[in-house]
Amino acid sequence: MSEEVTVVLVHGAFAESASWSGVIPRLTDAGVSAVATPNPLRSVTTDAENVRRAVDGVGGPVLLVGHSYGGAVITEAAVDNPAVVGLVYVAAFAPDHGENALELTGRFPGSTLGETVRPYPLGDGTHDLVVDRDLFPGQFAADVPPADAAVQARTQRPIRDYALGEPQPAETPAWKSLPSWFVFGDADKNIPVEGLRFMAERAGAVSIKEVPGASHSVMVSQPGAVADLITEAITYLSEQ
């Protein structure tokens, strides 16, 4: 691939764009162009459209990187999008058609997320969900310094419950046609590690990296490992 590939980073539920603040400088130092786009966390369909607009704004080939629920979003945003050349899943969902984040989380034992989530009604029959701010560090970011995890807890973006239960729209998800890479921690309390392995292997990932002891917030606690995998993906794509 002769054109420079730009990395577009998409955060997940209970997070926000600053989640990538440790990853971006490492990519920049490696000569990789990267931008983080806000993710409204309203529905897979509308959030994917938001990412498509971000991809259009780049004006060149894009490697999409999604964390957690952001994996479902990039899976949809990349469908029939010639600008997207690869997908990186960071402790992320890679759903097939008709699957959703809630179902995939519960398919394998081990998640304790449900016990920590607090709903707030939106007035239309749906709810915004947040992780209890006092429980957030232990649930979401157990390997992040406590002071930093406390800030994450207070800056988290709520997700609409509909988004987590919305069936993946595309009949053929993008990971079936695009190369993919997966990185996640083996101490993830949100998405069971068995589920993360299942999705990575099902996608036929080019590379799967498990980070020992890393939490769901692996891009914050281990930004070097995440940046290294993204750089590995860029190198692979440049050789195609």
Question: Could you walk me through the main structural features you see in this protein, from its secondary elements to its overall organization?
Answer:
It holds the Pfam family Abhydrolase_6. This is Alpha/beta hydrolase. By secondary structure, the protein is of the alpha/beta class. The chain has one domain (6-238): 3-Layer(aba) Sandwich (Rossmann fold), CATH 3.40.50.1820. It is built from 10 helices and 9 strands. The chain has helices at residues 23-29, 44-58, 69-77, 101-107, 136-140, 146-155, 161-165, 193-202, 218-221, 223-238; strands at 6-10, 33-37, 62-67, 84-90, 117-121, 127-131, 159-160, 180-185, 207-211. β5 (117-121) and β6 form a beta hairpin.
Secondary structure elements and their pairing?
Blueprint (H helix, E strand, L loop, with lengths): L5 E5 L12 H7 L3 E5 L6 H15 L3 E6 L1 H9 L6 E7 L10 H7 L9 E5 L5 E5 L4 H5 L5 H10 L3 E2 H5 L14 E6 L7 H10 L4 E5 L6 H4 L1 H16 L2
Parallel strand pairs: 1-2, 1-3, 3-4, 4-8, 8-9
Antiparallel strand pairs: 5-6, 6-7
Helix pairs in contact: 1-10, 2-3
